[in-house]
Amino acid sequence: MAQSTYVADRVGVVGLGLMGGSFAKAEHEGGREVYAWNRTHATVELAEIETIDGELTNDVIPTCELIILAGYPQVSIDWLQKMADLISPGAIVIDTVGVKRVICEKCFAIAEGHDWTFVGCHPMAGTQYSGFAHSRANMFHGAPMVVVPPQMDDFDRAGVLERLKHLLEPCGFGSFTLSTAAFHDEQIAYTSQLAHVVSNAYVKSPATQSHKGFSAGSYKDLTRVARLNAPMWRELFLDNADNLSREIGTLIDNLQQYKDAIDARDGQRLEALLAEGDRLKKEAERR
């Protein structure tokens, strides 16, 4: 391995949106040196006031032990491709993208032939809002971090994961879950992407415009993520189109059963469907 040029615990963040801003703020509050790049330079200038130590320039990139790719999937891939030769030997590069197959395939390939390591990551936290203004240092407190490690021997993998946990310690993640990229994308199609599709479609009812005074917790819970960053979610949905389409199809089939029972005024069938859903939810909570 070539000589490392990084400064221990120094962090570079690529993209200062909700995720990147939250990582930068958490690492800064944890006493780490943080440098950042953002397509809109005004955001970098804003962050320099109280969050970051400076801009992530070509001169600074080789000094970072950890680099966090916090942009859209293609933006993250393009940045890594362009800057691959500048990253210090021994450094760790992670992403925060909500799909893993496309990002891991491309970024593992970019990392080949270099002495730094790419690790696929997905912090399971966020809000319905976007942008640096909504980022916060405690965004990840207690949250799971899904980790897709590269192919390497067990000893080397253990060493990388221990270093990664140390580097991310200021973020306060509650757990680190190892996964393959394929299994991650199967699960996230159900636990996250389908929820956004359903919420976004649900508010298209004409009743939405007159719900005030007639809605409480159920409405708020189901519609929270109807507000979303459309360009970002478009890219995530299409990068996981096979899994998400299957989940939507399953939901449509299940909804049709409820509709058929209601249209037929079949109380026995309707109660059985409701009881089945209640049972499955309880079983999932016991796992």
Protein described:
The longest helix has 23 residues. This protein is of the alpha/beta class and 287 residues long. The protein has an eight-stranded mixed β-sheet, with helices on both faces. It has ten helices and eight strands. It folds into two domains: 173 residues, NAD(P)-binding Rossmann-like Domain (Rossmann fold, 3-Layer(aba) Sandwich); 104 residues, 6-phosphogluconate dehydrogenase C-terminal fold, CATH 1.10.3660.10.
Notable traits:
alpha/beta; Rossmann fold; 6-phosphogluconate dehydrogenase C-terminal fold; 10 helices; 8 strands; 49% helix; 14% strand; Prephenate dehydrogenase; PDH_N; NAD+ binding; PDH_C; prephenate dehydrogenase (NADP+) activity
What's the helix and strand layout?
Elements: E1 7-14, H1 18-29, E2 34-37, H2 41-50, E3 54-55, E4 64-69, H3 73-83, E5 92-95, H4 101-111, E6 117-123, E7 144-148, H5 154-167, E8 175-178, H6 181-202, H7 217-223, H8 230-239, H9 241-263, H10 267-286
Parallel strand pairs: 1-2, 1-4, 2-3, 4-5, 5-6, 7-8
Antiparallel strand pairs: 6-7
Helix pairs in contact: 3-4, 6-9, 9-10
- Calculate the terminal CA-CA distance, rounded to whole Å: 44 Å
CATH superfamily of the largest domain: NAD(P)-binding Rossmann-like Domain
With strands numbered from the N-terminus, the spatial order across the biggest sheet is 3-2-1-4-5-6-7-8
In DSSP terms, counting alpha (H) and pi (I) runs of 4 or more, how many helices?
10
CATH architecture of the largest domain: 3-Layer(aba) Sandwich
Low-confidence stretches: none
Total strands: the figure is 8
InterPro entries: 6-PGluconate_DH-like_C_sf, NAD(P)-bd_dom_sf, PDH_C, PDH_N, Preph/Arog_dehydrog, Prephen_DH
Organism: Parafannyhessea umbonata
Protein name: Prephenate dehydrogenase
Keywords: Oxidoreductase
